[in-house]
Write a structure and sequence with these properties.
The structure holds 2 protein chains of 2 kinds. By secondary structure, chain A is an alpha/beta fold. Chain A is 31% helix and 24% strand. Chain B is α/β, with parallel strands linked by helices. Chain B folds into 2 domains: 167 residues, 3-Layer(aba) Sandwich (Rossmann fold); 147 residues, Aspartate/ornithine carbamoyltransferase (Rossmann fold), CATH 3.40.50.1370. In chain B, the strands form 2 sheets. A 5-stranded parallel beta sheet of chain B has the order 7-6-5-8-9. In chain B, strands 2-1-3-4 form a 4-stranded parallel beta sheet, with helices on both faces.
Amino acid sequence: MNEIKLYQTAAAVDKLIEQVAAALRSRLAAVGIDDPVIIGIHTGGAWLAERLHHALGIDAPLGTLDISFYRDDYTRIGMNPQVRPSRIPFSIDNRHIILVDDVLQTGRTIRAAMNEIFDYGRPASIILATLVERGGRELPIEPDVVGIRPVIEPGEQITLTGPSPLELVVGQSKTAARKRQK
Amino acid sequence: MSKQNIQLGPDGRLRHFLTIDGLSREILTDILDTAESFTGISERTVKKVPLLRGKVICNLFFETSTRTRTTFEVAAKRLSADVLNLNISTSSTAKGETLLDTLRNLEAMHVDMFVVRHADSGAAHFIARHAAPHVSVINAGDGHHAHPTQAMLDMFTIRRHKGDFAGLRVAIVGDILHSRVARSQILALNTLGTSEVRLIGPRTLLPADARSLGVHVYYDLDEGIRDVDVVIMLRLQKERMHGALLPSEHEYFQLFGLTESRLQHAKQDAIVMHPGPINRGVEIDSQVADGPRSVILQQVSFGIAIRMAVMSMAMGSQTQAAK
């Protein structure tokens, strides 16, 4: 029941990240953005953002967001006991932002992340890059750049485990998937 | 007092925050970690998060305290809650309304959380026991009993400067006997695994059972602060002078006032803390209070983050319990 299957090996994930980086490069070139900043959403998105930050050779330091204080399910499930500080070590105002997450499903995390970003300032633009896009959207949010679009059963979770190596696993619980690696 | 811990919900999460007593190291660490995430918010353009939007928090102060009430108010507002400030000593109790009647009336106004300060020990527990099930209570100081958010902001300050509690020597100096702050600090320090907690003060201001609290007792300041990492000074409550517990402010300063030369006995990198308000020249010399090792003003800033953490944790488990 709680079986966790390896879906993409570390080598395959590395390749996907290269593809995302390449797609971002051409996307940024097409719209004429030469000085973007990058923000990853804890935890998987932050791992991915770190890789992309390096691959794209971005000057500004990496930003990370923990969206726990912006979640729309606080009144249903309470406080996330493992909240980490958000770190945006640059000014958001008038910057072009690459927002990075590991898996896009409902879109609620991205909504929360954008709300938080706007509390830091007014960005010029935000583009969304995710490693995985799967079905199940509940909000009108779509990614600009995607690594892979797998078909995942509705009751199952696809999870990025890391930070090193990065692998994609499929199972019933994200927590179990992350624990498997430790 | 009942040992069944009404502070915790059925899932073991924090529902009320009344005392450090009975809380595990895990919960105290969760509070410190959550507060850590809240510290960055005060540096942003928008110094607020939407976590408690639509919630009503009532500051129920039966004893005046500008600083504590203000930091609770700032904390609640940074969480986007609405805040009611009630100064009860000047309000309905003067007209003969009982505490329970006041409580029922406020509940009828759909208050979700009470922050309670009262001169009587156990007042916050009383309110927690009688409050409606969806309401959380935070103790902002009750009599001589407890002041848990102050203790936690002190723990936060210590952790920020010193890291792990294991290996630390911490001295608490002054009127321990009447101090709810000291009582909560001792519990928190011991729960978090501090190597050595020392109490320093005149015999008349130290509790008779001090040693049973798991601490070392000193009657001499120079001896007591030798090689400590943290010195926590307590405010000398001037009203104690009248109870013949102390000779005079001047003599107290001579014996227990913290000066630069006395501080030399502590470790080179020792920090000096004080819950405020400070009595300059009574328990602490201005040179120390304003000096490089003083972290007194940081304590105030960290107090906001700690109160945000406690409020959001208690309110979060409350909504879950009500589900």
